[in-house]
């Protein structure tokens, strides 16, 4: 797993489901686009759920948080 993915998972383990912008704020050395690409990839591969709440608002969560 790449460091960005590990950081995203750690953020979600600590805070639970949150908006994508919260994760971007948590990772200030990365751009919104870099975080989104990692989250998108992880949601397709399994460990994350990605939900669009509004036009440009996304919520992400670990799948295990909804088991």
Descriptive keywords:
67 residues, alpha+beta, Arc Repressor Mutant, subunit A, 3-stranded antiparallel beta sheet, 18% strand, globular
Notes on the protein architecture:
- The protein is an alpha+beta fold.
- It has one domain (3-66): Structural maintenance of chromosome 1. Chain E (Arc Repressor Mutant, subunit A), CATH 1.10.10.
- The protein has 3 helices and 3 strands, in the order αβααββ.
- The chain has helices at 3-15, 20-26, 32-45, and strands at residues 18-19, 48-52, 58-62.
- A hairpin with a 5-residue loop joins strand 2 (48-52) and strand 3 (58-62).
- The mean pLDDT is 89.
How is this fold's topology laid out?
Elements: H1 3-15, E1 18-19, H2 20-26, H3 32-45, E2 48-52, E3 58-62
Antiparallel strand pairs: 1-3, 2-3
Number of domains as seen in the coordinates: 1
The portion of residues forming beta strands comes to: 15-25%
- The count of DSSP E runs of length 2 or more, i.e. the number of strands, is 3
Distance between the termini: 22 Å
Broad shape: globular
- What letter string, H or E per element, gives the SSE order? HEHHEE
Q: Provide the CATH superfamily.
A: Structural maintenance of chromosome 1. Chain E
Individual helix count: 3
Short description:
By secondary structure, this protein is α+β, with helices and mostly antiparallel strands. Helix content is 51%, strand content 18%.
């Amino acid at each position: 797993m790449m460091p960005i993915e590990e950081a995203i998972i750690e953020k979600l383990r600590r805070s639970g489901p949150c908006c994508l912008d919260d994760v971007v704020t948590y990772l200030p050395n990365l751009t919104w686009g870099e975080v989104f690409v990692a989250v998108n990839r992880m949601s397709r591969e399994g460990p994350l759920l990605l939900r669009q709440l509004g036009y440009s608002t996304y919520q992400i969560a670990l799948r295990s948080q909804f088991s």
